[in-house]
Design a protein that fits this description.
The structure is a homodimer. Chain A has about 130 residues and is mainly α. Chain A contains six helices and two strands, in the order H-H-H-H-E-E-H-H. Chain A is about 65% helix and about 10% strand. The structure holds a DNA duplex (30 and 30 nucleotides). Chains A, B: This is Transcriptional regulator, MarR family protein. Chains A, B: It comes from Actinoplanes siamensis. Chains A, B: It holds the Pfam family MarR_2.
DNA sequence: TTAGATCGTATGCATATGCTTACTATTACG
DNA sequence: CGTAATAGTAAGCATATGCATACGATCTAA
């Protein structure tokens, strides 16, 4: 079967997904990085900025303006850790959790629509493979 | 099944593939864009710079330095089209075809190794889905 | 206690990206 | 013929990215 490189195809698909998500994020006034942060914090296992940066694959210095913005808008909290005063403990506010939930649901819905183009069995396998490879 | 957004997983996989390809490209002195160009020209259906830019999703102005470099190194030819002297017809040289083949083969081999982590059936379905979605 | 490591923050740099404008040569159309 | 459109080229701009450095506050370990 003649096909492109995986890299080329994955890159194209990535651009397509990005284009799909952009309007959703814009509609809720959330940047891509802000959403990634909300997503990372929603997992619950991440509490410090360094851990968050490592988890989402971002530079810790570049994360700061994003966190500043999210904090100003009341979507996250940044409290000093009483046990280690170097650290700021991050947490979603109720408002942040709600925004994340809404945006995430819309993105999931759009993703499902995209996957409609696949045979059900392929869809299953595709997602499974993606989970394994990513 | 709890999983990340498709966008997040595809982006991670993309970064992984990029990291995998980078050493291969570097070993042959080819930049990512140069390889994409060689790949686009290897298809055979593209002959002009504008068509190439459209095909690989690049800006036509940004393509120029890449083409200049490839031409200087004798990997492509850029001849004026006798039928339309605005146009430069692009073509791989034998040397360019060879470099492309070698790099592509190495990338394919590395990709196969990556896909080893999947069940054979999933691997098939994954590639099929990728072709459809990208 | 002292030296070294870590966390958050600020700043700068080199590079990459997408977009826009402008210009020349050339072609296509009214 | 003359105007509009197109191909290639050059240059600039705003933004984004990865990377490095520096600094104060604080913790850890010898």
């Amino acid at each position: 079967m003649a096909r492109d490189d995986l890299g080329a195809m994955v890159a194209r698909l990535g651009r397509r997904l990005l284009a799909m998500e952009q309007p959703i994020l814009a509609r809720h006034g959330v940047s891509m990085w802000a959403y990634v942060v909300l997503n990372g914090l929603a997992g619950g296992s991440v509490r410090t900025q360094a851990a968050l940066a490592a988890r989402i694959g971002a530079d810790k210095t570049r994360l700061i303006p994003v966190l500043d913005d999210l904090q100003e808008r009341g979507l996250i909290e940044r409290e000093p850790d009483p046990a280690d005063r170097r650290v700021r403990l991050l947490a979603l506010t109720d408002s942040g959790r709600e925004v994340h939930r809404v945006v995430r649901d819309e993105i999931r819905t759009a993703e499902e629509a995209l996957l409609e183009g696949l045979a059900p069995a392929d869809r299953e396998a595709f997602v499974r493979a993606l989970v394994t490879l990513s």
